[in-house]
Amino acid sequence: MAPNILWQTAPLASPEKGTTDSPINGFHPFPSPGVLPAPIFYMSQTSVWAGNSVLLQCSVFSQTPATRIVFCKDGEEISSQRCLEEKVTYDYVCEVSNDSSGSYSCGYEIKDSDNQVNGSQLSPAQHLRVTGDPSNPNTLQKLLHSI
Predict the structure, then answer these.
(1) Maximum Cα–Cα distance across the chain
(2) Which Pfam family is one of this chain's hits (predicted)?
(3) d(Cα 42, Cα 130) in Å, to the nearest integer?
């Protein structure tokens, strides 16, 4: 899993032309909000038991192929993928724990002809609610009392 990195702009380490697609001083060199349109984000479930998984998908429709996809939780990077030339939709399977509740979204980067990295706006976020751990007797007891 990628380190938690805020999805925002950071100054480049040197004034040379071009940017990097790796984090700098704990921040990602990605405009916030980005200049490119937001991708389409899909979450397979919005309420799930801890221990299950949720499929996150990010679809990018752009004339220029994306170079990197980033999945975020509460605006912080949780995973990134290098892009393939002809691919439009990217998947990330999120293993759900009790700490997984939050707002999920995605974004992408494109390198232009000058090798400059341009970022998208983040997709509209979708909230994931973790309902508990089914193997925990306290969770089952709470569920039975709520019925």
Answers:
(1) 63
(2) Ig_2
(3) 17
Whole-angstrom distance, CA of residue 103 vs CA of residue 108: 17
Distance between CA atoms of 112 and 53, rounded to whole angstroms?
Answer: 35
Strand partners, 89: 59
How is the beta sheet containing 89-95 ordered, strand by strand?
40-43, 53-59, 89-95
- Answer for the pair 28, 6: CB distance below 8 angstroms, yes or no: yes
Q: Tell me the whole-structure pTM to 2 decimals.
A: 0.71
Using only the alpha carbons of the chain, give its radius of gyration. 18
- pLDDT, tens digit, 9 for 90 and up, residues 48-106: 999 999 999 999 998 888 999 999 999 999 999 999 888 999 999 999 999 999 999 99
CB atoms within 10 A of CB 25: 8
Spell out the domains of the chain, with CATH numbers in brackets: 5-146 (2.60.40.10)
